[in-house]
């Protein structure tokens, strides 16, 4: 990752009108670093590929901005900056052609977030949409899936909340700077997401949620995900825009069928007619993306088990009930060690006690 001194120039260029990822990477390639590009005279900027108008805009802009003050603001809001050349930049986002040059992050992105699905839908969710979202998300999260959504009212909010309620990981993609939560009533939800997930945006701090920002937000939403699930939507709207981005990015599109009489099912029904995968339950999604075992393995690899005992026990549990005597035999651990750890793991939602001293792993499909 670039040093903090270099980071501020990445941040500065994201605020210059007319300079996107393509021009930014060209500048970086030409000058070797963005510090020299930021300070370059107009002739050099033109040689590096900027047109006359953009070069003038940059020179005027850099005179009116304090990059050090930008870093202070980022620190105030505890925002991490990931550039497209950073090793921490999300792998899935690197795969799309128009990923952002800079990604702002509050909270933490982890390796387990590579196994992720976008859940999107209308702001006017019906009772059916709420029920479906809660059911699908709960089961997907129980299988180690990170849920990506846009923090909007309706389906997005239900998806984030359902994830948090079972201590799952969720990522909210903003159409504004990370210092501006939209809608404002989701400020508390945004704080909760940061505790076990992340808020992300390509927009610099201070950027308001303008209408033109939402389609750009939606391409990141789908870009961060293995597939996009449309729960409810009218025949037009942001959810369908996200689905279209997913298709363009060669990611899977899923849709939940609904009544032909429901306005909020017209969008998903249309997507199914056009070739989206029909979703009956979470198993359809996991099987289509071959995630039934992959998500579980990745989750186990990243399990926070300081002494390793929880990991050892989990690797010897299965979908079928396993008696505690068998767990002791397979792991080689004492009865006291296994019993005490299983009690803690059950409290943390990692295992299920089925009675008769038998346990199953709660992160599998059961």
Give a verbal description of the structure.
With 366 residues, the protein is an alpha/beta fold. It has three domains: 1-76, DNA polymerase, domain 1; 107-288, 3-Layer(aba) Sandwich (Rossmann fold), CATH 3.40.50.450; 303-361, Arc Repressor Mutant, subunit A, CATH 1.10.10. The chain is built from 18 helices and twelve strands. It has helices at 4-14, 21-31, 34-39, 42-47, 52-62, 67-76, 91-94, 127-141, 155-165, 187-195, 213-223, 238-248, 266-273, 282-288, 294-301, 309-314, 324-331, 335-347; strands at residues 80-83, 102-107, 116-120, 146-149, 170-173, 197-201, 227-230, 252-255, 277-278, 322-323, 351-355, 358-361. The strands form two sheets. The protein has a nine-stranded mixed beta sheet, with helices on both faces. Strand 11 (351-355) and strand 12 form a beta hairpin. Helix 8 (127-141) runs parallel beside helix 9 (155-165). The longest helix has 15 residues, at 127-141. It is globular and about 80 Å long. The model has no long low-confidence stretch (mean pLDDT 90).
CATH class wording of the largest domain: Alpha Beta
Beta-strand share of residues: 5-15%
Helical run tally: 18
| Strands side by side in the biggest sheet | 1-2-6-5-4-3-7-8-9
- Secondary-structure content class: alpha/beta
CATH architecture of the largest domain: 3-Layer(aba) Sandwich
- What kind of oligomer do you see? single chain
Say how many strands there are.
Answer: 12
Supply the number of structural domains: 3
- For the terminal residues, how far apart are their CA atoms? 41 Å
Helix content: 40-55%
The whole-angstrom Rg is: 23 Å
| Biggest sheet overview | 9 strands, mixed
């Amino acid at each position: 990752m670039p040093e903090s001194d270099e980071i501020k120039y990445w941040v500065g260029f994201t605020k210059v009108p007319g300079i996107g990822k393509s021009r930014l990477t060209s500048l970086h390639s030409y000058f070797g670093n963005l510090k020299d590009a930021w300070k370059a005279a107009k002739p050099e900027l033109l040689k590096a590929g900027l047109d006359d108008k953009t070069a003038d805009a940059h020179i005027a802009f850099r005179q009116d901005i304090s990059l050090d003050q930008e870093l202070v603001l980022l620190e105030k809001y505890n925002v991490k900056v990931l550039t497209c050349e950073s090793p921490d930049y999300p792998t899935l986002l690197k795969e799309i052609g128009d990923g952002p040059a800079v990604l702002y992050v509050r909270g933490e992105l982890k390796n387990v977030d590579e196994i992720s699905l976008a859940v999107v839908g209308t702001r006017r969710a019906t009772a059916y949409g709420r029920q479906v979202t809660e059911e699908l998300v709960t089961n997907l999260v129980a299988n180690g899936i990170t849920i990506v959504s846009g923090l909007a009212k309706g389906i997005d909010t239900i998806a984030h909340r359902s994830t948090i309620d079972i201590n799952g990981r969720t990522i909210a993609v903003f159409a504004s700077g990370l210092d501006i939560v939209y809608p404002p009533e989701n400020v508390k939800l945004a704080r909760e997401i940061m505790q076990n997930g992340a808020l992300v945006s390509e927009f610099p701090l201070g950027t308001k949620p303008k209408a033109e920002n939402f389609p750009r937000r939606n391409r990141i939403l789908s870009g961060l995900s293995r597939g996009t699930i449309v729960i409810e939507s009218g025949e037009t709207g942001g959810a369908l825009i996200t689905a279209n981005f997913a298709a363009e990015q060669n990611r899977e599109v899923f849709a939940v069928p609904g009544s032909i009489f429901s306005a909020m099912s017209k969008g998903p029904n249309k997507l199914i007619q056009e070739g989206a995968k029909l979703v009956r339950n979470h198993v359809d999604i996991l099987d289509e993306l071959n995630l039934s075992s992959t998500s579980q393995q990745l989750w186990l690899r990243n399990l926070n088990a300081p002494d390793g005992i929880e990991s050892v026990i989990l690797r010897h549990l299965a979908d079928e009930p396993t008696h505690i005597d068998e767990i002791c035999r397979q792991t080689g651990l004492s009865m006291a060690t296994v019993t005490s750890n299983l009690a803690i793991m059950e409290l943390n939602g990692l295992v299920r006690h089925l009675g008769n001293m038998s346990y199953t792993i709660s992160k599998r499909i059961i």
